[in-house]
Amino acid sequence: MADTRDKITTLSFTHMKKKGKKIVWLTAYDYYTARALDDAGVDGILVGDSLGMVVYGKKDTLSVTMEVMLPHTEAVSRAVQNACVIGDMPFMSYQTSDAEAIHNAGRFLSEGGAAGVKLEGGIEMAARIRRITEIGIPVMGHIGLTPQSINKFGGYKVQGKTDQAKNYLLESALALQEAGCFGMVLEAIKSDIAQKISQSLEIPTFGIGAGSLTDGQIVVTNDIVGASGDFVPKFVRRYFDLGAKLREVASQFAADVRSGNYPSESESYG
Ligand code: KIV
Question: Concatenated DSSP letters for 59-103?
Fold first, then answer.
């Protein structure tokens, strides 16, 4: 049957916010996961730099490079028909200069096939984001707990606890909207400030550990299917335990091979 859903673009999200329609984002890093998420009808798919941790088993996202991100982004973009695919700019691909940021953001579109990019940072990153959006590359902002700055935060800590921190987040959100972001991730911040930011912006907010009053939610797919580390953050709902299931299937396969039960005649070419 033909797929009659409309292609979701970076512009669709503001319309969805205006209509009060909650926006759904998940991450994907490979072709078949992206296809499944698209078939399930998610609105956006982020090829997150979280892949450093959940695909490559690193302790943080800091060693992820453009050369790692681009092939994953290309595979996801090729798999997806309807959802909006965004590539996550890795650490040090946009921090040093406008020229480097624009060049690398462009590569996510020209080589990765993405519809736009995400990058981390508050008001201090607004001028750079403006330069990228002005030349026609859609940008998703990301404020709150920005994992590329864990060394500054001293770990994965909830942000926006003091009045000063809340003011910084609100000012940042307004500056990123002004800089042309089509939406923004609010990560690990107190629900009250997430609500205030969401109400103050025309563009939508996508919360991860930011409570229920953002315009949408975004989570790392591996976290909700049980295919990531043992630490499960408070905001993660585990729908499945893929790690346990894989262990079960691998042991069953090993037992079948060792007992001669696999392959059977019908599984052989005669
Ligand atoms: O890298 C990532 O997957 C992210 C999301 C969790 C927002 O930045």
Answer: SSSTT--HHHHHHHHHHHHHH-SSSEEEEEPPTTSSSS-HHHHHH
